[in-house]
Each structure stands twice: as C-alpha cells, then as structure tokens.
Design goal:
Helices cover about 20% and strands about 30% of the residues. The strands form 2 sheets. Strands 5-6-4-7 form a 4-stranded antiparallel β-sheet, covered by helices on one side. The chain folds into 2 domains: about 25 residues, no CATH class; about 70 residues, Alpha-Beta Plaits. Helix 2 crosses helix 3. With about 130 residues, it is α+β, with helices and mostly antiparallel strands.
Length: about 130
Amino acid sequence: MISWLKLLPVLAAGVGSAAFWCPLCDAGPAVVRAESLQVQSADTASVRLHISRMTCGSCPVTARVTLNRLAGVYGATVTLEDSLGIVRYDPRRVTPEQIAAHLTRATGFGATILPDTTTGPRGSGGA
C-alpha cells in the first residue's frame, strides 16, 4: 500500500529542472527538464487581439501555438466564441504590431490590436 506522503510529489528546485519522487515505483528522484519554460520579467505586458477567419475548433489551437512560438511571447490564450486572443509578452523583445503580423503571416488569420480598456481613466468605469 502506498502512503499518502509518497503520493505527494516532493519538488526540488533546480536550474532548468525539477526532481520528484515517483510514487509508483519508489525509485528515487526522477528529473524532469523544464527547458521550454520562459522566465517572465517584471515588465511583462499584455495585448488583446481580435482574430478573424477562425472557423472551427482547431483554429484557436493553431493560433495559440503560433503565438507561443514567437520569441518574446510568454503565453497566449485564444477563444473561438469571441475571436479574442490575449498575449503576454516581453515589450523589450517584441511589439504588439509584430505579434499581430506574425500571426497573420503564419496562419492567414486576421489579427487586429484591440485598445487596452483596463488601464487609465477610461478603463476605471468613470465618465
């Protein structure tokens, strides 16, 4: 019988990897590489995109994967229902215009930068 303590992964921080105890084989630490993770800087920015010409359930996946492959992009979410893409990126490495152009060039989807309504006096709900 496996104890509850063995079922809880014990993570050990490492540079570019994490080690944990396998609860099934109890064979000691296994190392998992985290090379694909990008470290986010304190000045991470977000851009909202209206993405046109998405027609099926796999289109948002295609857009998200394409956006995530661009250097300087930390992560992206894309939804078909509202044709919205939200991209977190490093403004020192890439601009919103470059992100939109990359998506259009690589996929054929249209990408329009939406205004940021979450900051400043206009986004606070005041008149």
